[in-house]
Design goal:
There is one protein chain. The chain has ten helices and 21 strands. With about 350 residues, it is an alpha/beta fold. The chain folds into two domains: about 190 residues, FAD/NAD(P)-binding domain; about 140 residues, FAD/NAD(P)-binding domain. The protein has a five-stranded mixed beta sheet with strand order 6-3-2-10-21, with helices on one face. It has a five-stranded parallel beta sheet with strand order 12-19-13-14-15.
């Protein structure tokens, strides 16, 4: 591993960690804000070299959209921002630097140190399986482009296998799809999945709609609690009319290869469980020497300026606008577990 350093220029450097909504929109805003400030350099660190429109991931899984419809190359999107593709391994707040690892293969992996004057955290969240047995190994998440591609491949593989004459005994589990979590991501995923598999059945001569089960499991009394009871009940009615089974006031507790277990309910034979029921802030935040709220969250205070801002960089009013824009652009992501913060 090569611990090289990306030298700190004479310019003041703003480093943004995260290439999701929070990070990209912060970079876009700062790029416009600092267009006439050549003494300031903006850097974005992202795991991927593209911006992913995650609210449409379920449409990729259901083949409603092509991949290119929901991705945008970061270097094309951000003309004045330096983009570093890699994993953030460590954040050294006292010394104002971050360690980034990158490389095509494990044996080719190496790291660099990126120094900064100002740091924006937009690392988002990661899937949280709450240590439920079997889920980390067997369940599918819906957080990234590979997740959506993997789900589509799994659905097609299950249909192909169930259509085979030699799989009569396993058809029930192959044709039962369970989505855990009745929030935005879960409802969007189960609706798209349900439409996809029902429309696909016509191409499989040995399969019929009566064999298919699509189940949504939600721990609350009504799905989509963010929208209120009336809209939640309406969504349940529409899903039920389309053939989706909805299990309320229960949760998944365990999973094996061809069966999923629910609390106070009989188990469901299924080879495919999609998990949208929990996220947790990026684990990197837990090691940072700063104030934290519950579950590693960082309390965010919107400031009207950087306390240590350099001359000509981010005037007080503009900095306040950047903070408000950053908060607004990530409001939906925050409701799903994403968090952003600024360090100076």
């Amino acid at each position: 591993m090569n611990n090289g350093a990306i030298s700190k220029p004479v310019k003041k450097r703003i480093v943004i960690l995260g290439g999701g909504f929070g990070g990209v929109y912060a970079a876009l805003h700062l790029e416009k804000l600092l267009a006439c400030a050549p003494e300031v350099e903006i850097c974005l660190v992202s795991r991927d070299n593209f911006f992913l429109f995650t609210p449409m991931l379920h449409e990729i899984a259901a083949s409603d959209l092509e991949i290119t419809n929901i991705v945008n190359p970061l270097r094309k999107l951000l003309r004045r921002v330096k983009v570093f593709v890699g994993e953030v391994e460590w954040i050294d707040l006292p010394n104002k630097r971050v360690v980034i690892s990158h490389g095509h293969h494990k044996y080719d992996n190496h790291s660099d140190r990126l120094e900064y004057d100002h740091l924006v955290l937009a690392l988002g969240s990661v899937t949280n399986f709450f240590n439920l047995p079997g889920f980390a190994e067997l369940a599918l998440a819906m957080k990234s482009l590979p997740d959506a591609i993997q789900l589509r491949a799994r659905i097609i593989r299950c249909l192909e296998e169930a259509n085979s004459e030699c799989s009569l005994g396993g058809r029930q589990s192959l044709l039962t799809f369970v989505v855990a979590g009745g929030g935005f991501a879960g409802v969007e995923t189960v609706a798209a999945l349900n439409d996809f598999v029902r429309e696909a059945l016509q191409f499989y001569p040995n399969l019929f709609e009566r064999m298919l089960r699509v189940v949504l499991v939600h721990p609350g009394a009504v799905i989509l609690p963010e929208l209120g009871e009336n809209l939640g009940h309406y969504a349940q009615k529409v899903l039920a009319q389309r053939g989706v089974e909805i299990r309320l006031n229960t949760r998944v507790t365990n999973m094996i290869e061809n069966e999923v277990y629910l609390k106070d309910n009989p188990p469901i034979p299924s080879n495919t469980v999609i998990w949208t029921a929990g996220t947790v802030p990026n684990p990197l935040l837990s090691s940072m020497p700063c104030e934290k709220a519950s579950r590693w969250r960082l309390p965010v205070v919107l400031k009207r300026h950087f306390p240590s801002r350099p001359s000509g960089c981010l005037p007080p009013l503009a900095a306040g606008q950047a903070s408000r824009g950053f908060s607004a652009s990530t409001s939906r992501a925050s409701s799903r577990g994403g968090y952003g913060a600024q360090f100076t």
